[in-house]
Amino acid sequence: VPPTERRVAAMLRALGRPASDVVASLDPRNGRATLEKIAANAVMAGCRPEHFPVVVASVDAIAQEPFNLHGVQATTGPAAPVLIVNGPVRKTAGMNSGRGCLAPGNRANATIGRALRLIMLNIGGGVPEAVDKSTHGFPGKYTFCFAEDEENSPWAPLHVDRGFSPTDSAVTAYAANGTQNVATTILTNPFDMLLWVADAMSWMGSNNVVVASGEWLIIFTPGHARLFAERGMSKADVQRYIFDRAGFPTAQMPHMMREHRQPRIQVGDQTKPCQKPEHILIAVAGALEPYHIVVVHPWGDSCAVTRREPEPV
Q1: What's the first-to-final CA gap in the chain, in angstroms?
Q2: What is the pLDDT tens value at each position of the chain, 313 positions in all?
């Protein structure tokens, strides 16, 4: 969409702050992400003004040091930001947190993620071939953005787990390498479902194993979350159950892999997919039935960052 002055001005009015305000400096170019530049890219992506605060919070999140934007922009891996949106802005922006929330069909989900990618390209300078050295990439580099289904979850939402108020609108940015579907359609025991998730996380080729750091993101449906809660399980219980059962025998690893970073993720004779249970992030979204779980594979050299939506002036 052409970023005309009229369209950019309409986007900026959503916050009422000066166009010259700098939100962040974006690697690797150290580009100054002013509100005007962010607004222009949001317009090009097809965002509406009500989406703009989410885009601004997303830019703020990826610019924080723990996210390691420089690495995400330049790695040979397929890394791309995942945006998980919480709070009232999910409704005002018209986001999808239910069936098909990771698929096409919702303008907000599609364009907010697309806006962030254009900002990473045009302001951050993450140009394919020249800077972005991703060997294959993955479709999440176009857009990967969804809202959490807070209303149908028995647990506190992700942003509350990370220190924010339930009434705050917030965005969590997480660096992903791809997704894996875990089919639980034939299972009735929730503990078996978690065992299958643990199995999906137990592989030597994970970036987390290579760098011995990083987090995982698991997206349960509200149906799964209710099954676990009915068994008296909190999110922390689910994280611990998965962590205790995930991993593979360290002896199976090539020797050179065992020499350096690997002891940080070793428990006994097992190599774990992450350093501790808290590094398994949990979001609740998707259709209501407990049929499929999404395991989001991590890039590894990054930690998720949550930032609050900026208040309009």
Answers
A1: 26
A2: 999 999 999 999 999 999 999 999 999 999 999 999 999 999 999 999 999 999 999 999 999 999 999 999 999 999 999 999 999 999 999 999 999 999 999 999 999 999 999 999 999 999 999 999 999 999 999 999 999 999 999 999 999 999 999 999 999 999 999 999 999 999 999 999 999 999 999 988 888 888 888 899 999 999 999 999 999 999 999 999 999 999 999 888 887 776 666 678 889 999 999 999 999 999 999 999 999 999 999 998 899 999 999 977 6
Structure tokens at 123: 């302001």
How crowded is the C-beta side of 137, counted as CA atoms within 13 Å?
12
Residue with the two structure tokens 């509350």:
160
d(CA 189, CA 116): 39
Please give the Cα distance from 274 to 168 (Å, whole number): 29
Q: Is 282 helix (H, G, I), strand (E, B) or coil?
A: strand
Measure the CA–CA gap between 174 and 217, rounded to whole angstroms. Answer: 8
Cis peptide before 254 (omega within 30 of 0): no
Cβ atoms of 265 and 239 within 8 Å: the answer is no
Which of helix, strand or coil describes residue 202? coil
| 194 and 245 Cβ atoms separated by less than 8 Å | yes
User: What is the rounded distance in angstroms from the CA atom of residue 147 to the CA atom of residue 139?
Assistant: 18
Nearest alpha-carbon partner for 173 in 26, 3, 305: 305
